[in-house]
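Chain A, query sequence.
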Amino acid sequence: MRKIDGSEWRNLLPFLYKNREFNMFIIGDIENTSPDSDNMEIYLDGDFDSPRGILLRYYKFLILSDGAGMNFREAAGVVRRYEQAMMLSGTISGIDRISPYLQEIREEEETLRFAVLREPNLNAAGFEVRRATTEDAEKLLAFLFSIEEFHATDEESFMATLKDGSTRRYIIEDQGEILATAASTSESSDMAMIVGVATGKDFRGRGLASAVVSKLCEDLLAEGRTPCLLYDNPEAGRIYNRLGFREIGKLKTLRFKK
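Chain A, predicted structure.
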């Protein structure tokens, strides 16, 4: 497994687009990141036309795209060498095969349902939803940290991607207090991943999550991007199903010890 130069990243796109939904994190990061960025690295097992495996680091998050014959021991070595790594995500089979080589640093494993907006039934009416700016960053971070279901957020990548627009964050407020939020990331030319959907504990059950996700999805669809998302909460799944998301598979994540 070798690290490839930023000028070579886009050579992987034809292969990645063959399974674009499950490779959308890598596709979006390649399309949105400058080839000379210090915040992203890609490691390749095999050649560009038929990789045996791909491992991408974006800030403190790693993504695995596994294929036949991938050397998972070598890939795990790359993960272990990056001591700041917070999380690794990939297919269930890929994570299950690399996990034995990461036992000493892994902390938590989670399986997530992967859904795509197939039958849009969106409704943001009745709520004022707006896109967050860098001026909202401090209170938005504080809001996310207040949500007990959320895992730790990397502040460096949060601030950088909000500033450069590679992650768009939408919010609903009441007198300056954030009540709900949703974001999109890994935006490629035709897809985007919905992340960070959250509603304040005292404001749940009022349709806020549906409204903020609906507005975000409406804007993405207007730009020709199909929204996707990951979830593990059955209640959230019912909301997403009503909005028109349909499950197409599962992914798995490993979180690492701090």
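The chain has a mean pLDDT of 93. Residues 82 and 127 are 43 Å apart (CA to CA).
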